[in-house]
Amino acid sequence: MDSQDFSAQAPAPSRGGPKNHPSGGTSRGVVHENTPHTTHFTVVGNHLAQHGELSLTAIGLATHIQSLPAGSPVDIRSLADRFPEGTARIAGGLRELETHGYLRRGKERTASGRVVTRTVSCNQPDRTGAGRGTRPRPEPPPRRTGNQDRSKIPRRRPQNRPDAPARRAETGPEKRARWPERQAQSLWTRPPGNAPHRSDQRERPRRKALSAVPAPAYATPDLLRTAVGVLSGLRQGDPRLLISAAEAEHLAPGVVAWLERELPPEAIHQALTSGLPREPLYRPAALLAHRLTARLPPLPPFRPPEERPPPPYPLHNCDTCDRAYRGPEPGKCTSCRTKETHGQLTT
């Protein structure tokens, strides 16, 4: 008995039968109307078209790449110009095809010395993993069972230290008696400068969060950018006032509250950098948060808005002397109206 060929053309169903109608018969799925292709077609396997782990974008990219002639560009930018999907989705689809063996990409150097990417499209998935950059996983070590001989298991050899017996012998009162000597030795070996010792790092408490800063009435993006510029410029006046980006983001609303009180950035810089202590500043952001709160100036006095004068009348040309004059409506200028009125009164 011959094997069944799924790629063979199905016989044309009768148009009057109930199985060909979408609402008739027992089948409610898709109805295929196949027409044989003689030119301009590409054979795609069902293992790709019906893949259970690939996304629809990856399946469409694989089908499109397999239909292209050899030498066609299939880089991310060329595919993004061809399809409406963005570069991120196309790059993800190519990674899926490379993971499942439908695509292989590698770097090669041409005769001119230029490094190019060679893409190989596989109509059958590369199940061996060649060209995908995967390394064989090392075999896990065998587990020890209860029947295994313990004498064959390698043991760690203790390090030969000359002071190991003496340390094991120090217990109880002798160990407590040597504590001041060890403490003094740690102080002598303290690194120079402000670098904390290892013992200080264990005993130092956890750093507290920065205190709250004054909240502005309305922090616009322009004011926030100005505030960050003021905070980043403090280190120019004193190198100790170097703060991180997270600390600047926390302190920026407090500087905006100062700017809302009609203070220029130069005055805020002077208020935050003047009178600093001479001791080392272990946390300059905490000092700045305190100064922004403690030295917050009061609000400026209320000034009512000034009444603006009314706008001037527009210019018009006089109907009698053709001179320009300002008035609420076109007509005659003031001189012509005065002469006309004076002439009427004289007669």
Helix content: 25-40%
- The rounded distance between the terminal residues' Cα atoms is 133 Å
Query: What is the mean pLDDT?
Result: 77
Q: Indicate the proportion of strand residues.
A: 5-15%
How would you describe this structure in keywords?
single chain; 347 residues; mainly alpha; Arc Repressor Mutant, subunit A; two-stranded antiparallel sheet; 14 helices; 6% strand
Précis, in short:
It contains 14 helices and 4 strands. The chain has helices at residues 46-49, 56-67, 76-82, 87-99, 164-169, 173-177, 179-188, 198-203, 221-232, 234-237, 245-259, 265-273, 284-294, 334-346, and strands at 103-109, 115-121, 315-317, 324-326.
What does this structure look like?
There is one protein chain. With 347 residues, this protein is mostly helical. Among the domains are: 46-121, Arc Repressor Mutant, subunit A, CATH 1.10.10; 221-275 and 283-294, no CATH class; 316-346, no CATH class. 37% of the residues lie in helices and 6% in strands. The protein has helices at residues 46-49, 56-67, 76-82, 87-99, 164-169, 173-177, 179-188, 198-203, 221-232, 234-237, 245-259, 265-273, 284-294, 334-346; strands at residues 103-109, 115-121, 315-317, 324-326. Strands 1-2 form a two-stranded antiparallel ribbon. A two-stranded antiparallel sheet has the order 3-4.
Chart the SSEs and their pairings.
Elements: H1 46-49, H2 56-67, H3 76-82, H4 87-99, E1 103-109, E2 115-121, H5 164-169, H6 173-177, H7 179-188, H8 198-203, H9 221-232, H10 234-237, H11 245-259, H12 265-273, H13 284-294, E3 315-317, E4 324-326, H14 334-346
Antiparallel strand pairs: 1-2, 3-4
Helix pairs in contact: 2-4, 9-11, 9-12, 11-13
